[in-house]
Amino acid sequence: xxxxxxxxxxxxxxxxxxxxxVLELTYSDGKTFHLPFELMxxxxxxxxxxxxxxxxxxxxxxxxxxxxxxxxxxxxxxVQPTFTDGHESGIFSWDYxxxxxxxxxxxxxxxxxxxxxxxxxxxxxxxxxxxxxxxSH
Length: 137
Known about the structure:
globular; 4 helices; NE0471 N-terminal domain-like; 6 strands; alpha+beta
């Protein structure tokens, strides 16, 4: 999902809207997406969020007000945001951003279902994971 698919359209423009906390992307197929920073943060493709395999995902909370401090290009295929909560290890490929845009409604529903299943609150601070050592962070 986070790799490159030669059939996926590429962005023609990328705009950070700091006040509304939205990343606007216009793709070569004419589609425009407005991705909330929170959605990007809770679905970051990093190992810190996705884990190292199926079932190891880490539910993200307290990200509603997260901002993006910087958005750095990664080659000609991705961007790497630095979020205001310090998270900076996610590399968002063009096709992953396209996926987030086209699946945004379902991803929000899935996120809310995961919160409910975990008995977690969307705005609750992240719980510290004592003793978690991982070289990918």
